[in-house]
Amino acid sequence: MLDLLLQSTSVSLLGTLGVLLLVYFISSTSFSSKGEGKEPPGPRPLPVLGNLLQLDLKRPFITLLKLSKKYGSVFTVYLGPQKVVVLAGYKTVKEALINYADEFGERDPIRIAQEDDQGNGVVWSNGDSWRDMRRFVLTNLRDFGMGKKACEDKIIEECGYLVEVFKGFNGEPFDTTQSVNYSVSNIICSIVYGSRFEYSDPKFTSMVDKANRRIELLGSPSIQMYNLFPWLGIFIGDRREILKINSSFKEENSAMFHHLKETLNPQMCRGLVDAFLVRKQSLEDSGNTNSNFHDENLMMTVKNLFVAGTETTATTIRWGLLLMAKYPKIQDRVQEEISTVIGSRQVQVEDRKSLPFTDAVIHETQRLANIVPMALAHRTSQDVTFQGFFIKKGTVVYPLLTSVLYDESEWEKPHSFHPAHFLDKDGKFVKRDAFMPFSAGRRICLGEGLARMELFIFFTTLLQRFRFTPAPGVSEDELDLTPRVGLSLNPSPHKLCAGTTVFIHLTSVLYDESEWEKPLSFHPVHFLDKDGKFVKRDAFMPFSAGRRMCLGEGLAQMELFIFFTTLLQRFRFTPAPGVSEDELDLTPRVGVRTLNPSPHELCAVPLM
Ligand code: HEM
Which end of the chain is more exposed for a tag (fewer CB within 10 A), N or C? Predict the structure, then answer.
């Protein structure tokens, strides 16, 4: 019941709660500083409630962004009894997370997660256990996943299954959530368990659906209140649902670990769980029974990877498809680039450098979607003086990633979908320092490499195969970009149509070996009969054919004839001095729509 009330009228409810809490907490909470130095400024807190009444609990990052305009890039807010220092803007977040990596590098585990994780796993842990698990996961992601050809193949294979699911909707509107989640989840499952699951396997689908629901619940106003005021626990239905999901996840995984243990071959690890079991055994064999490689750490690490590795990437892909449906002209340019450079063959990771516009669109999707707006809460590991402010050891710190991704002094159009943020004036891809959706420093997302590979292959393959449009009767303008509340920012519920894209590969016509005598040579005789008369050829189709054939064909033919003939009448064209005819390079430069000659210079010697 409390959940419902909190979701609908958080402000008025908080007013009532405030009175109760005032009585409950008055003796135990102090907002005053102990005076070691100047503390970061911030809005004046109320007793017990702190600044909660000023905060939009559904979108706290928006309120914090506004507060940063008033109080600067390092400021304090009180969430109930909890003091939080917020870091805002690219320069400040980068300075803190990179130059003061140790000081700002601890995790502040939220109450609801701590109850389950008990300091195990990677996401919510600290100290030696965190270090061991993070190192182990990174090594294994390298061995079984990131940056490896084998991983690329897994992603390509999984994307193929997703394409089949999309095709099955026959262009009818559908919600992309489940299919994209299952597909992305299978990649982390292959890395972790060593095998993928069928989308029809109810155990698998229920695990993915529950993980998704859990993320939604973790960001709900009622759970945020629970994290601050744990005594509310018994009233909060969302918490009971989370506890239920936690125990069913443990049950499923215990069964899976049991099976993997029984079939384990230490010489041939199938995935990260096998590698963990082997390491645990070898430590125990050498007499070390007190290491961090124990069952609870295995369970929580797997859970962290399953949840963090599914929801984030899947959500970003779904934002990408939604943005394409909303901005069809940008979708046109992506599809033209893919069609020119890739045609209909399978996309590979190394194609990224030849697809600058598509790459820019993926980066811009991540920037605007801003799916983890406040990172995950950090904590200071020691007293620190930062930008002249004293911050005590153990203070909760929010690196406000929204304020980096939307930083007005870094981005030309921070609040618009503007792929040109990542392109130079020649249309080449450019990296931007303030692109920080994976955070930075000691706690930077450890799945960044994998996620980037997944995003590229999924997005490009889906755009190669489908045209995404709003459901019939919904205009592009009506597609809503307001995010749904959760620990991460998801698109609000919506449906899209995925129409099949047909590629007309004109190269295969103009170079058709059964049509042209010398398809790959410059051979004007292709258009002459034996008496030297011009002949039309059916396979001459540079303007395409049919209903969508180039409508400028007549004009273009006339221009080509007059320009070419007049220029050849007046000039003799030769390579630049010192360049032989053989050295003139016919390799085309790839543009978005057209193949251009590579840069070169010619001499035009007048004939008269
Ligand atoms: C588009 C996809 C993704 C985004 C935007 C993303 C973003 C983030 C962010 C912002 C953090 C918090 C960093 C901080 O607290 O400063 C994080 C942490 C983490 N991410 Fe990701 N992530 C993505 C994909 C993945 C994937 C695929 C995996 C799994 C392989 C993963 C595993 C983790 C883990 C384990 C942590 C905790 C790291 C630690 O505390 O040491 N993430 N991620």
Answer: C
Please provide the DSSP assignment of 168-232 as one string. HTTT--B--HHHHHHHHHHHHHHHHHS----TT-HHHHHHHHHHHHHHHHHTSHHHHHHHH-GGG
Judge whether 603 is annotated as a binding position.
Answer: no
Output b/e per residue, 252-263; b: 16+ Cβ within 10 A. ebeebbeebeee
Ligand 1: nearest atom to the Cα of 125:
40
Residues 6+ apart with CB under 8 A from 431: 422
Q: What is the pLDDT of residues 250-309, one digit of tens each?
A: 999 999 999 999 999 999 888 999 999 999 999 999 988 889 999 999 999 999 999 999
Secondary element (H or E) of residue 390: strand 389-391
pTM of the predicted structure, to 2 decimals: 0.82
In angstroms, the CA 118 to CA 601 distance is 68
In angstroms, the CA 399 to CA 377 distance is 7
What distance in Å separates the CA atoms of residue 581 and residue 384, rounded to the nearest whole number?
Answer: 67
Report the pocket of ligand 1 as residue ranges, CB < 6 Å: 107, 122-123, 134, 188, 304-305, 308-309, 312-313, 316, 371-372, 375-376, 399, 437-439, 443-447, 450-451
As given in the structure block, the two tokens for residue 392 are: 């005590």
